[in-house]
Specification:
single chain; 462 residues; alpha+beta; Uridine Diphospho-n-acetylenolpyruvylglucosamine Reductase, domain 2; Uridine Diphospho-n-acetylenolpyruvylglucosamine Reductase, domain 3; eight-stranded antiparallel beta sheet; five-stranded antiparallel beta sheet; 27% helix
Amino acid sequence: MIIHTLKRRDGTVIDKATIEAFRREFRGQALQSGDDGYDKARRVWNAAIDRSPGLIARCVNVADVVSAVNFARAQNLLVAVRGGGHNVAGRAVCDDGIVIDMSVMMEVSVDPAARTVRVQAGALLCDVDRATHPHGLAVPAGVVSKTGIAGLTLGGGIGWLSRKYGLTCDNVLSFEVVTAEGEITTADAKTNADLFWGLRGGGGNFGIVTSFLYRAHPVSTVLGGLILYLRDQAAPVLRFYRHFMTTAPEELTAYAGLLSTPEGLPVVGVMACYCGDLSEGERILKPLRAFGSHIFDAIEPIPYQAMQTLADPPNMDGTHNYWRSTFLKDLSDDAIDLLVAHGNLAQSPLSRTIIQVFGGAIGRVSSADTAFAHRQATYNIGIEAQWTDPDESKTHIAWTRDFSEALRPYSSHGYFLNFIGDEGRDTVREAFGANHARLVELKTKYDPANFFSLNQNVEPRR
């Protein structure tokens, strides 16, 4: 068995006595290679990520986070921060350095009268939905229930309620943050307002958010589900989808995709969620449900909590994943033809191409009001390769990259932070758009040494 040691950024090994001194003041588990639970703790959702941290500090409270930050700074360690561990690029883990792991900090507290929800950073979307749904409330979040709420929020966060109630980051009222200096602070509209601005779409660049206070909305039962057509109908279905969503009310969010059934049958699908009056929703969705010759239609009134799980099966744990994405301003006929042609070249039945529509409340917030810059984006295209055999990795990664390159002429050259994989510095910069310069100044103020670097990184001014 290979034993991995904890190393400083300069490659020197941290001695055992130094680590034991840290363990004595740390309430949670401090796991090293060879310890029971280490291998499980270093795994993330994406099986393509295989990294071996020198130390995994599994925090049980904010004091533990502070202790881990201070230890990492004093010892000059590479730092990864883990919430839900669902980032496709695996930024929640690192080799040789320390993982500050908040995955057991999952408390969710609901104030039904105030319609607010306090959520610790290790919580998943399903934890939030489980707590809010009995009160007839929901926090606008993502579409896969196993996603971590922290990373989703810091990158913006889009989901079934975003067209009606805004991005996840738009619904944050306050952040509790541990800075690179190990200080606990609050960021809201009145306190550290500059940090509050940057945390809403600026990623994990400025500190470790240990809890979020969200605004919740009255959502209980929605009209939602999936419609499937055979893949040979993909082009006409996507053209109709484009036309249909142009006039759709904000209560309706519908995403389209090229995917395969569990039996491996290539299909084109539309998944929809209407969060308004159900009878009105039936009327609005009728043209979509009447279009073409679908092979499956499961749109029905369902609890919002159930709606949040419909996209879970394709996003199973333990598979290999590699993504590319870009914003499109227009879903032209030529762009649709390209999406279909390249989508049909996927070599894995688990791979998919997703079309997410923006608009509504998302665009009513000024691009300068939060760090999330791409408020006027119309469509986000996700090219998501997924496979099980690691020997096939080159094939599936090549499909994703070739597809992404072919789509470049149609791109608005903006990118959704939550979908970025390993594209590099230029893509990260374009994800921040016109807000990048302001984010550099914020980074220089709150993290001048780039202590928090394993993220969609904004480099401080030197």
